[in-house]
Here is the input.
Amino acid sequence: MLGELSPRTIYVRKRNAKTNGIDDAREAAEIRISLKRQITDLYRDKSGKIHVFTVDPAIEQQMAESIQSSKQGLVLGLEPPLSEKLLAGIGKLIEKMSNSGQIQLCICSPNIRLVLRKLAESKYPALNVVSYNEILPDTELISIGIVRIENES
Here is the structure.
């Protein structure tokens, strides 16, 4: 049934999730995973490949460890200077993709996708952020770079 979710099915799943105590972020992630065929097709180029940039695994780990739950949902608890460096690194790769005529797409681990998107959306509204779980496994990914944060020591 992959990719066969109607608006009604999504509504029913969402309603059931609320009554079962599943939080919105987790339910949204599950729905996105079930839509992986459509998400994959959305970002494929003419040759069937997807051009992406990634985030350094050490930064992803730091982000995952700083996620906090609040009334507004999940929030990223990184120190502001680190968030600014992260956004600057994202900006460089977005510019590289834009200059090449590619869709601005970051792929990351599922546990940080939502908070990374929230962090970047005000500065980079055209940035698309997907998790590895949202792309079909047989899809060739072409990495144009990795967001890294250099130490200033």
Observations:
- The chain has two domains: 1-34, 45-147.
- Residues 45-147 form a domain with the Rossmann fold fold (CATH 3.40.50.12790).
- The mean pLDDT is 86.
